[in-house]
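Journal club side-thread
Mid-discussion, someone asked how the predicted structure for our own chain would compare to the paper's figures. Pasting it here so we can look after the session.
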Amino acid sequence: MKKLFLACAVFAMTFTTYAQIETPQPSPFSKVEQKVGLTDITIEYSRPSVKGRTIFGDLEPFGGVWRTGANKNTIITFSDDVTIAGQDVKAGSYAMFTKLNSATQWDVMFYSDTNNWGTPRNWDDSKVAATAKVDVHAIPFNVETMTIDINNISATGGTIDIIWEKSYVGIPFTVPTDKTVSAAIDKVMAGPSANDYYASAVYYLNAGKDVNKAKKWIDKAMSMIEKPGFWQVRQQSLIYAAAGDKNGAIKLAKESMAAAKEAGNENYVKQNMESLKEWGAM
């Protein structure tokens, strides 16, 4: 029995030792992170090598769909809505699959379902967010390890480049830099929003800063809101009270309490009642 126990222990130790050994992957994982304009783009993929084989037209036959890499399907992520080969694509993650039509023309497809290992078992055309029909350019040298990169970068776009063996394709895309910057400029030039005034006023109240300035800001915020919520009127009443305008605070607290009752929010009803008692109105 002791010999059997010892043999099992040795086997377990040997198995554990071997389980801790890490060996290089034949197609190592790679991650590309690139900001284009104001848009963040990430590509995650595995990089197979040629290893003396003929890749396109043999290992990856023409007419078939290739996972555009090895192992798990290649995934590209956009932080903003973009345009790929003239087609609008929503922000998010997409699997990249390539239909190898011929030695001179490929279709690179951006597939909304990324939970596949390789090409999907049941292909669904409705999940193709965009298809870039690209010309394949022959290069005069051999690229041993497949590479995907983002190049030709400008403030408004670039290309997703795929290069392997002696073939290169570039997929053009644009990003909404002008739209984003223009919207930011318009917002700043238009001045602070109601939320900006409201948040600043509440912060000044809670931080014990200039309460008269807080009162001015909360009034400005309320004038910009078509129908202030009872919680917003509640904050306005507190600022009025802190600024010494008790009559104004009481009037606002009653308005907030009535609106809170209508909305069925007993917590705010209770808070307003307590303030009204404190201010001598009940």
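Post-session note: The first helix runs from residue 2 to 19.
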